[in-house]
Hints:
The complex is a heteroheptamer, with one copy of chain A and six copies of chain B.
Chain A: H1 2-9, H2 15-30, E1 33-38, H3 44-53, E2 58-61, H4 65-73, E3 92-97, H5 101-109, E4 113-115, E5 127-129, E6 132-133, H6 141-147, E7 152-155, E8 158-161, E9 165-168, H7 176-184, E10 190-192, E11 195-201, E12 204-206, H8 208-211, H9 215-236, H10 244-261, H11 270-288, H12 297-303
Antiparallel strand pairs in A: 1-3, 1-11, 2-3, 4-10, 5-9, 6-8, 7-8, 11-12
Chain B: H1 2-12, H2 19-28, H3 35-45, H4 50-57, H5 64-67
Helix pairs in contact in B: 1-2
GO biological process, one term (chains B, C, D, E, F, G): translational elongation
Protein name (chains B, C, D, E, F, G): Large ribosomal subunit protein P1
Organism (chains B, C, D, E, F, G): Methanocella arvoryzae (strain DSM 22066 / NBRC 105507 / MRE50)
Amino acid sequence: MNAEAEVHHSEHIPQWKKDEIKKIVDGVHSHKVVGIVDVRGVPADSLQKMRRNLLGKVEMRMVRNTLSTIAFDSLPEGEKAKELAKYVDGQMLIVYTNDNPFKLYKLLNATKSKRAAKGGDIAPSDIVIPKGPTSFKPGPLVGEFQQVGIPAGIEGGKVVIKDTKTVVKQGEKISAKLAEALTRLEIMPIDVGLNLMAAVEGHMLYKPEDLGMDEDLLRDMFAQAAAHAFNLSIEAGITTKDTIEPLIQKAVMESKALAVNAPIFEKDVMDLIMSKAEMEMLAVAKMVAGKENALDDELKAKVQ
Amino acid sequence: MEYVYAALLLHKAGKAVDEAGVSSVLKAAGVEVNEARVKALVAALEGVNIDEAISKAAFAAAPAPAAA
Amino acid sequence: MEYVYAALLLHKAGKAVDEAGVSSVLKAAGVEVNEARVKALVAALEGVNIDEAISKAAFAAAPAPAAA
Amino acid sequence: MEYVYAALLLHKAGKAVDEAGVSSVLKAAGVEVNEARVKALVAALEGVNIDEAISKAAFAAAPAPAAA
Amino acid sequence: MEYVYAALLLHKAGKAVDEAGVSSVLKAAGVEVNEARVKALVAALEGVNIDEAISKAAFAAAPAPAAA
Amino acid sequence: MEYVYAALLLHKAGKAVDEAGVSSVLKAAGVEVNEARVKALVAALEGVNIDEAISKAAFAAAPAPAAA
Amino acid sequence: MEYVYAALLLHKAGKAVDEAGVSSVLKAAGVEVNEARVKALVAALEGVNIDEAISKAAFAAAPAPAAA
Lengths: 304, 68, 68, 68, 68, 68, 68
């Protein structure tokens, strides 16, 4: 309705644009989640493929930025998706889904791949050239590498990188010459894919940094939590089906340790006690093995 | 870590580890629930096999056969 | 183990690990609470430094032979 | 841990590890017996082959990386 | 091992490991008490730091590969 | 451990490891002998193949497993 | 190895490891004493930190099956 109001104030907007705007507003209202995706650098055919792959899970709509902005702006005050207008920029599209924003982020992330850099690309992270050999034969390449700051040299008839070096920092522009060198080195620094810039679900706006949960880290945390519970159970003697056997084993080990270390002469541990004594004796014998006549021949043979 | 404990509790109890469950367990423990974190946890669990994760480390402390 | 997770959750949340707390956390998880188990848990944890206990290797008696 | 030792002691002595037995051993040691813990112990031992568990202790020396 | 179990039970319960204590624990477990063994046990533990002793590698070392 | 060394000494010297022998070796070392421990030692060694037990210590020379 | 056993016996008993001590312990065990060896051993042990030597090696290795 607000869209209509907006449209009403903009008499010069042709009907097809009004329809587009209404579609966006309807899309926002008919899905749990709406997001803005940056598709810069994604070739049209790849985009088509991604759209097909996401069919049924994520709906992707390519809309003119101006119309997107008008549509988001037209949303009523207090509607969180209104804020998405701020993220409309560059080559973008709108995505809708009924999954949650985390799932959306994961799905979109899965579309990403790496490509070679072109002059003018912005480094998405520090680009580091690792030290080591290359497959190139000596030639003008060495000079070209050096020109863009790559510490190249020649060793054993091959071009080598003499030191690990960061050639571009995150956020810096990659020059055409450097891009060429990186391509030769088969370094593909540029992310291609659907970059979620922001997503709104209900009253919450999520940015990518809110959405990226590291699954490995989560696995570690679960392992840690389980270890905590286990350790606490054993320390506090909490007897459950899960812990009773380890508790028995702990008790038995403690008993044996006490019997051996005290020592307490119990049949179960006599062999351990005797071998412990023997080991101690051998250890001491070893200390004096080099001294003239300190040990008999049998013992000397054992410790040398 | 509270969120992970809550998830493990639900999991061990044979319940679904969903937003409602995690939130209500946390609330019962007096934790002020951060909805985004709950959502993030539940979403991330789609790709995590909890039993596998805990079997890796948790009971490594125990004698292997006993823990089995 | 649910009971232990409930205790850990309360502890991490800075709450007392008492019968009422453990019970309400378990209930929130949909667990049918066994009062005797709750009592046993709380009793076992009495006087235990939980932070210390959770980080202790469960089988201290085990290896470290070289260090011995 | 005293509860576990009481159970082991009874078992070694060839007695049944039941609530009455555990309680009386603990009492003899001057321990104020917590009934819930005794119950939990006996319940946890149901179906457990204690001799087998004991024999596994020999190999229980594996270090606890997770706990570390 | 009953005697050692009895000693550790007392120790874990925070009680002194003396002849009277060990004897009464053993009796409560239905063990026919051998006084000389009780005396030997108590004598062996004199001056021993039990907590330290039990946390030391018990088995003159579980062989690494077997434990793996 | 002095009791164990006394036993090992007697054994190596080809003497019987009995109460009289252990006591007199200990006395010669100036040790105040505890009869109960001597009895316990001799009793515990009954049926134990000492040569076999100490031959296991041969591995001691190699500190490899300890480092593991 | 009787000589080293005797030395360790004295050391563990908290006595000085000197010629008189080693000789009398050996004699009590029925060993015919070689005085030169006693002298050599006592001299060799001078400056050796026996406790350190023992603690390094004590748990270096152990019989897997024995522990079972």
